[in-house]
Design goal:
Layout lengths: L11 E5 L5 E5 L2 E2 L4 E10 L2 E4 L4 E13 L4 E4 L4 E2 L4 E4 L2 E4 L4 E2 L4 E3 L17 E3 L4 E2 L4 E2 L4 E2 L4 E2 L4 E2 L7 E4 L4 E5 L12
Parallel strand pairs: 3-5, 4-6, 5-7, 6-8, 6-9, 7-10, 8-11, 9-12, 10-13, 11-14, 12-15, 13-16, 14-17, 15-18, 17-19
Antiparallel strand pairs: 1-2, 19-20
Length: about 190
C-alpha cells in the first residue's frame, strides 16, 4: 500500500467547502487538496494521517470519524468517502490510495463492548488496500484485510479477509468472482 504523508504536517486539514470556505480539522499530517462537503465530525485523540486529494462528501447525511488514544487511522491519496460514513478506530485502520468508500459504510476495528462475561474481544487492525471500492451500506469488522483492487458489494458484512482482485459480497461477505484488473489501472469516481 502506497501512502505518502510528508506533504503538510501542521496538524490541521484545510478542507475546501462549497463556496470556497476553509475548515480546520485536527489531523496529525495531511496532504494537499483535501475537501469536505457537508457535516463531518472528527474526534481525534490518537494519530490521523490524511493523504493528498481526500474527499469527504458528508451530505445529505453527516459522517463521523473517531480515533481513540494510541490509535492510528491512515488514509492514502485520492480517497473518496461518501455520506453517512462511520469510522471507529481504537487500534489501527489503514485505507489505501485510490479507494472509494460508498454511502452509509461502517468501518470499526473493535466491538467497543463485550457481548457477555466470557467475551474477550479486543481491537484488531483493519487494512483496506489500494484501489478498493466499498459499496453502499457495507460493514467492515475488526481484523479484516481487503486486498488491492477488490470490490465489496453493497450491504455486505466483511468478517474475514478478502483477497485482491475480486468481487465479494453477502452476509458474511465471500468471493463472488475474480475481477480483470490490468497493471496500473485505477478505479475512478465521479
Amino acid at each position: 500500500m502506497s501512502i505518502a504523508y510528508n506533504k503538510i504536517s501542521f496538524g490541521k486539514l484545510l478542507a475546501v467547502l462549497k463556496g470556497a470556505a476553509v475548515l480546520p480539522i485536527k489531523t496529525s499530517t495531511v496532504g494537499r487538496l483535501g475537501r469536505i462537503s457537508g457535516k463531518l465530525t472528527i474526534r481525534n485523540k490518537g494519530r490521523f494521517y490524511v493523504g493528498q486529494n481526500v474527499s469527504f462528501h458528508a451530505k445529505p447525511l453527516p459522517s463521523s470519524v473517531s480515533v481513540e488514544k494510541q490509535a492510528e487511522l491512515w488514509v492514502g491519496d485520492n480517497v473518496f468517502f461518501n455520506y453517512g460514513l462511520d469510522i471507529g478506530c481504537t487500534q489501527s485502520i489503514r485505507i489505501g490510495s485510490n479507494t472509494i468508500i460508498g454511502p452509509m459504510v461502517n468501518i470499526i476495528d473493535t466491538n467497543f463492548h463485550p457481548v457477555d462475561m466470557e467475551d474477550r474481544s479486543r481491537s484488531k487492525n483493519i487494512v483496506i488496500s489500494d484501489n478498493v471500492w466499498i459499496g453502499r451500506g457495507a460493514v467492515i469488522l475488526p481484523g479484516v484485510t481487503i486486498g488491492a483492487n477488490s470490490v465489496i458489494a453493497a450491504g455486505s458484512i466483511v468478517t474475514r479477509d478478502i483477497p485482491a482482485n475480486v468481487l465479494a459480497g453477502g452476509t458474511p461477505a465471500k468471493v463472488i468472482r475474480e475481477l480483470q484488473i490490468g497493471k496500473d489501472w485505477i478505479r475512478r469516481y465521479n
